[in-house]
Every structure is written in C-alpha cells, then in structure tokens.
C-alpha cells in the first residue's frame, strides 16, 4: 500500500525544491537566504545546487510546475510573497496534480488498482487562506510602488495615508487588508509601520466598503486634497466626484454621491474639501492596490 502523499514526498517535493532553489540562486539569493526561504538546511540547498538530488523528468518539464517555480521564485526574492502564500500556491498545484493528473498517474503506477479511482479533492483552490494571502501580496506590491516613488511623502495628508484592498466578498473592515497604523511622512520620507494586515484600517476601509455598495472597486488609497491634483486626475481621464462628509464620517457622503454617479472609469476619484475639524482628503479607488498605487505615482 502506497499513499499519494508518499509520491509527493518522493517525486514532487525533491524536484520542485531543487528547481526552486536553482531559481532563487539565479535571482541572486545566497545559499543561506535560499535555505531560509525554503525552510531547509544549507547542506540541502548545496545538494540541490550541485545536482545531487534526482528530479522526476515528467514533473520537471510540466509547464504548470515551471510557471509556479518562476512565480514563487520571483515572489520570494522580491518579498511580495510570504512563505505562507508560497506554500498555499504550491499546495494548490499539488492537489490539482493529484486529481487525474501527473501525481495520480505516478500513484497508479505504484498502485495499479487505483486506475479506476477518482482521487479525492483535499485542498480547495479557492480557499480563504489563498485569497487572503493574495490580497496581502497585492497590497504589499502597491505599498512598495508608493514608497519607491520620489516625492510620495508630499501627497500624504496630516492624518496619514493608507492603501487598502479587500477580499472579493468583503462585508466589513476585517475583510480589508491595509498598512497597520497608516503611512506617515517622517522628515520627507514615507514611513510604513508594518506588513499589511486585515482589520487594521477604519477610515479608508470604510470608504472602500461604502463605495462597493455601488461599484466593483476592490482597493483604495487616500492622499491630501489639492484642487490642482484633482484637476490633474480629471485631465488624465479619471472620473472625479466631490462628496460632503457627515460629521466625523465620510461613509454617507460616499454612498450618496455614488448612488447617483454617472458611469465610472476603472479607477475613479472621490474627494471632500474639508470642514470644521475635518481635513480635506482625496481618495483613489480601483480594481486592486497596485493599479491604484500606479495612479498615485503618476501624479508625481
């Protein structure tokens, strides 16, 4: 009796790890960094690098495996992908290959009686873990775009900026990933307190959730209000709509202006010009965090 997990351990894992270690080394990571990223020893990395680990030809030449190695390698090397997301993405492919695919065939080779058996689905490709990690990764990429943009700190309002993105079926702020504590201007430098987390944004997340009642927006960023900036955004072709804040809340104003809004552009702009005790703010909303961040960067 041989479990399919044994096929994964004996055939897939050595091949995949060897390919990924090779990819990361080619991207300039040290042997120690590769070991840390993959959670293996440096001696194991050395064996992979020197071809001392046998690879399964069928797995190694599969386009999906090669694409995953490239995607995970790029994500780990750039910091856009956490080890958790890398694991989830890899697990999803493994489970797919177990269902009437390469791993199922290898399993059937070891257990011919399994030829007529449909391998049970163990991991859901649309799992919540995968979705949350992808959103966090998206916010991470967008934040890097902003902080790498020369002059971004000049767009940060007194209350700080944030970049948020929500899950596809978001219903509350706990479904929205954002920078904890917001992005602040510290002596001309945009400062990010920590890695994106869910449930750490109140104001920008609330604006996004209110906008989603009338739009398909999944991400938002706030910057300081300046009529010249709004004019620049309008000149760039984005729909720009003014709304009135209601006391300390902007939610009702957002709902109201979008309820009667004309057809919106893919990225659109909402802004309020302030009031007593209320700082004027501009919001850019769009399909994902990197897209919104690109629009902010283009203002500089």
TrEMBL record:
One annotated GO molecular function: DNA binding
Which CDD domains does the record associate with it?
Answer: HTH_XRE
Q: Is Transmembrane included in the keywords of this UniProt record?
A: no
Q: Where is the HTH cro/C1-type domain?
A: 20-48
Source organism superkingdom: Archaea
Against InterPro entries, the record matches this protein to: Aldolase_II/adducin_N_sf, Cro/C1-type_HTH, Lambda_DNA-bd_dom_sf, ThiN
The protein's UniProt keywords, in alphabetical order, are:
DNA-binding
Protein name per its UniProtKB record: DNA-binding protein
Q: Which organism is it from?
A: Salinigranum rubrum
